[in-house]
């Protein structure tokens, strides 16, 4: 592979050292800094070096890959002491909510795909935010017209009932071994002692400073003294630590009832410029939903992920399913290969825009959309040699009359992805979000940002009198693009992958899977390669990479080409007979760390510190 991408890695390493010299900010920490947040272990430094060199990380028994080294290190420690992938996820998510608060956290939602090694079974957990019971299809309309995007996002109106805390507890109840109090402790410690603000977080705050200034609590945290928090500054979050302690002691209910819930509701309803409709009943009624994985056949594999309300598995599956009969071996620098991928994607996005929404509320042709015969019929359209002149939704098999209008919503890149394999052979792929960077820009009294997930609904409820499947309805979950994926072969996982990136997530994940399966790249090379993404409009080519050279050939084929930044955050783990191979996206700050499992070494009790209680044998 040619080297292509800028990397933030050296700056990130330096940030850890810079933190040592920083005073704690008065606005976020009422006492002097005492800790060295940001210092990295030898493991993390080695992982960063590997990523910088374009090398994957290899390990025999367990691995975790996520968007911030502090979160990955904390998760790795849990796996090393015998925790399951679900245990490690609780720790990783709790730390990410602190150190990457702009992307995910307790105020957001997530989807989790789980491979259960003991049962050889795959399932998914839906922790998506829900619309308040008081919401209606006109939530994002004023005087019958669609609201402007930012007017809708900033404030309480866009906040859905958070699902991430419930998902953390639900996954842990089903698949965890260690005590929640133990799993939350690393984030509590880090919140109290402080962490070094990463370059990415500092840059995100600086870019968004005007919007972050709108709510006093958000502003005090991110703009102490009125200035964006600096890279390397030591940041503490005592309210967040208190929230995690409440969850450690009181469980799920401590979030969804009582003071923490009331703080969320007051924040949402009390933002006078754009109040929301969330009430205590919405939080108390929140439920994680277990749903069957949606799988599509591709080559010798089953590509499995999150079905509705996510469009992720269906759209990734549709792209790959249409490509099944084509030879893509000429690679990403071949215009005809890009044409095939691009037009398969355009056709998949046409179906997505027409049919995909929360299937608990609208009838959906879920099986029909990834039916092999349907996809091979759609693939007939790809047999020319020029870009399709026009693309329309297909007619997947379904047992209801379908008459939906096309979705109308804006989707911006944000979000975070966690991939984990534990030493029992379980695999977890979880994409987690508060939607836009910094979500609604409202911080709850509990020290976490609230999502703006409701703007993933269509702002229009109808088009020419025809209802839109993804319109707002009370209690409904907005359509997502998140594509946490586990690729299976002969019933066992071979690749655990996912990415942030708004609706481009789908293209990032599909291309990385093709790079790995068709072009034989190891996971790090597949994540490093530049992106070419076509949703339903322009063909987007990644700026500053060799794919810019494809502008001419693609324009010749009839595409409108747009050269732009394509900020994926792919994290992937390859499962091989020789062990695990992991990679982290060079466009973000994440790493992969793997190791030996104490469990795999035959130690029946591996707790290495008080409070770590391991159920033995691990629960299936
Ligand atoms: N808000 C990002 C997604 O759900 O696709």
Automatic annotation (TrEMBL):
Q: Which residues bind L-glutamate?
A: 128, 456, 480-481, 502
Print the keywords alphabetically.
Answer: Acyltransferase, Glutathione biosynthesis, Hydrolase, Signal, Transferase, Zymogen
Question: Which top-level group of life is the source organism from?
Answer: Bacteria
Q: Where is the active site?
A: 415
Pfam families found in the cross-reference section: G_glu_transpept
Q: What is its EC number?
A: 2.3.2.2, 3.4.19.13
Q: What Gene Ontology molecular-function terms does this entry list?
A: glutathione hydrolase activity; leukotriene C4 gamma-glutamyl transferase activity
What does the record give as its pathway? Sulfur metabolism; glutathione metabolism
Q: What reactions does this protein catalyze?
A: an N-terminal (5-L-glutamyl)-[peptide] + an alpha-amino acid = 5-L-glutamyl amino acid + an N-terminal L-alpha-aminoacyl-[peptide]; glutathione + H2O = L-cysteinylglycine + L-glutamate; an S-substituted glutathione + H2O = an S-substituted L-cysteinylglycine + L-glutamate
Q: Which SUPFAM superfamilies match?
A: N-terminal nucleophile aminohydrolases (Ntn hydrolases)
Q: How is it modified after translation?
A: Cleaved by autocatalysis into a large and a small subunit.
Q: Which GO terms describe its biological process?
A: glutathione biosynthetic process; glutathione catabolic process
Secretion signal, residue range per the UniProt entry: 1-21
**PANTHER family this protein is in?**
GLUTATHIONE HYDROLASE, GLUTATHIONE HYDROLASE PROENZYME
Subunit comment for this entry?
Answer: This enzyme consists of two polypeptide chains, which are synthesized in precursor form from a single polypeptide.
Question: Which family, according to UniProt?
Answer: Belongs to the gamma-glutamyltransferase family.
What is this protein identified as? Answer: Glutathione hydrolase proenzyme
Q: Which organism is it from?
A: Candidatus Rhodobacter oscarellae
